[in-house]
Amino acid sequence: MEMKVRVFLFLLLASSCLLRAEFRTFTNDFGDSVDAQLIELKEEGTIVEMRFRNGRKVDAALEAFSAKDQKYIRQWWKDKVAAEQVLTEEDRLVLTVTMGRRSSNALYDRWYADDKIKSFFPEVKIENEELQDFKGNEVRLVVFAEDMQYDGQILVVSAKTLKTDLKEREETVLESDPFRLRLYEYDSSFSVYDYKYGYEYDGYAIIIKNSKGEITHSKASKSKYLNPKLFFKCKAGEMYDDKFERKLSISPNSYFIR
Q1: CATH fold for domain 2-84
Q2: Whole-model pTM?
């Protein structure tokens, strides 16, 4: 075994030449050394694939290296795998947002104009179409409602940040904070006294950040809701102008129920 190790390292050393690349000097317990570039740690962490300076690739047993180099190689591979699991803008994700709305008096909605309380259960589905896992991602979902009494006001009804890993070729389902909205409408066919009170669901926005904190994917029912200045700090129960550019110093009324 010792002779094989020495011969192996000698061949590595003999085949090196001057080419530009990221190389490191590796040694064994006998003091033999060689410059090579790491490519992959495979065979369940027992075989190291390396590249010489002349471009030729070889496989070597991990145990052929010194204890210090073995530790370095294992850590290098761990870091390399982690880096490859960082989500990027080019990675293919399919984002679907549903509200799971339920009406408290759905049977009577078509006959009576009366107080209606509707429950919403925000849910995000993320389908990873890549053959690769992505770890340590942050998913931010914000849901909005329109003030039906006063023009120019919107209400944040749900806002939550969720952590998740995305498995290759799998769908990930995340649930956000539920909420209830109450809407009173009066539509008269005999007079001009039509009016509305309360809040009506108006849309959502979702932004995904990778493990480095970089924004990679986003989707919204209305583009105005992707305002980065407010999106990550807004809270449920806060009121904003209808362009989602400015927070209003008012509170929602009782038609918003948490």
Answers
A1: SH3 type barrels. (2.30.30)
A2: 0.68
